[in-house]
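In line with agreed milestones, the collection of sequences with tokenised folds has grown. One record among many is set out beneath this paragraph:
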Amino acid sequence: MIQDEFRKILKKVWAQKISVEDAMRQIRMEPYEDIACARVDHHRSLRCGFPEVIFCQGKRPEDITEIARTILKRSSYLLATRADEAASEAVLNAHPRAEYHKLARCVTVQKRKPEVADGNILLLCAGTADIPVAEEARVTAEMFGHVVNTAYDVGVAGIHRLLANADKIHEADCIICVAGMEGALPSVVGGLADCPVIAVPTSIGYGASFGGLAPLLTMLNSCTAGVAVVNIDNGFGAGYLAALITRKKKPDKVE
């Protein structure tokens, strides 16, 4: 049950359009559904603001289809990450509106467009090779209803390219920085910005980058205040966190 549905039920009780008992019957649906291959968490959106997300890597296509169908029974939205062509077909089998974002390796379903969310998210990407991770972050944040501004290939090796986006940096409410190699970009951006900076290390780099470990340690050891770090290649986690940081809750109004 999504938050909007829950609010509607509460408003109907307040307006005496339905009884407390009727409301309880609607709310009492099991918080999760056991479908053998997974236990789908239907109350995730009620607790966290967004439905459960499918991590496709390692899952069989038939399991992805079943999980997607189960989520979409009670949700208008679906996000599946780390999806290859087979996974995208599996989600398409679950719903005809499935859209495959190949570069981001994500599949989305939107039965209706999400309400446009407050907050200005800026997504910075150090190099072209880091774009797939950045795109995963973008798709994730947009599923929350955010408009995401982007500036790609603005790494510190040509810092004038980054400084050309100073206005965007100063206007942002939250910034996602995606970088591989030595991972210096978030520290530089953190020294320019007055908002939270989410650092995403990628596994792009030569041997001594150790598959993303070097940029991860650089970001963790940043001397710039206000920089938080997610795991290597975790664009999803960065996009999700940015959406949570920037969304502004407004008090509910009883119609």
Notes: The first strand starts at residue 32 and ends at 34.
